[in-house]
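Structural prep section.
Before we set up the soaks we want a predicted structure of the protein with NAP in place, mainly to decide which crystallisation condition to try first. Input record follows.
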Amino acid sequence: MTRLSGKTAIVTGAGSGMGLEEARLLAREGASVVLTDINEEAVRAVAATIREEGGEAFAMRHDVASEEQWAEVVSETAKRYGKVDVLVNNAGISMPAGLLDTTVEQWNKVMAINVTSVFLGMKYVVPNMIENGGGSIINISSIAGLTGGSGAGAYTASKGAVRMLSKAAAVDYGQHHIRVNSVHPGFISTPMSSQFVNDPQMLQWFLSQTALPRVGEASEVARAVLFLASDDASYITGVELPVDGGVTAK
Ligand code: NAP
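Run finished without errors. Recording the tokens verbatim:
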């Protein structure tokens, strides 16, 4: 398990759900992982588990919407591990409200945590990657960033922005051997989605949307992230990879 040996990765939102599984898998594949999350207790516990499993991990409290905290995360990572090879912009929040029911405060919050975070993460990590000869950035969007969806206008807009921001960065920094791709999970079982997945009516609706007859697991998204992070994806940049059990194929 050495697809990322000698590499350093930052994973945001690593205290829960997909971020947790992504951080664990990248560490199992040999990366030194800096796990960040607004929930410090949770992310410290995940880092401790990774270390117990024999991996190298360091946890930091981090609000991804804060420019100051991004500067600290990247400088601490460089101090500890010398460089950043992989950035997974995973942290995000949902906002299940139609546009007419969305306040400006809610809109700004979703944009700050789901989009400004991705902009800031790339703004602070890309100079380090340029200096070190390249890297791989994986931005977690959603199927909501590929299709209009319904009843979550601010969330959908935020995930569409992540998709196009990823392509813009892929085009601008490819010459520095930096690859930037977006991953688009469908209905994945995590704490974020548990209220929906555990509701039999919602679950039935999810299953009417997927081709595969089940919701996905966070570890299945983590494997797609590992692929894009590793040299297996060495000529892949600017793509959007759905991990959605076939929702967007319909
Ligand atoms: P999750 O289980 O809620 O995990 C997200 C983590 O991010 C939590 O630990 C959360 O902390 C943290 N977080 C929230 N706000 C933050 C902030 N400002 N700064 C740093 N960390 C913050 O969610 P998930 O389901 O794994 O989702 C991960 C990503 O996948 C998100 O970008 C989400 O939009 C996307 N996604 C999820 C699904 C799905 O079905 N689950 C589908 C498509 C896309 P708290 O718990 O303390 O808030």
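Observations: The helical segments are 17-28, 40-52, 67-81, 104-131, 153-173, 194-197, 200-209, 218-229.
Flagged for discussion at group meeting.
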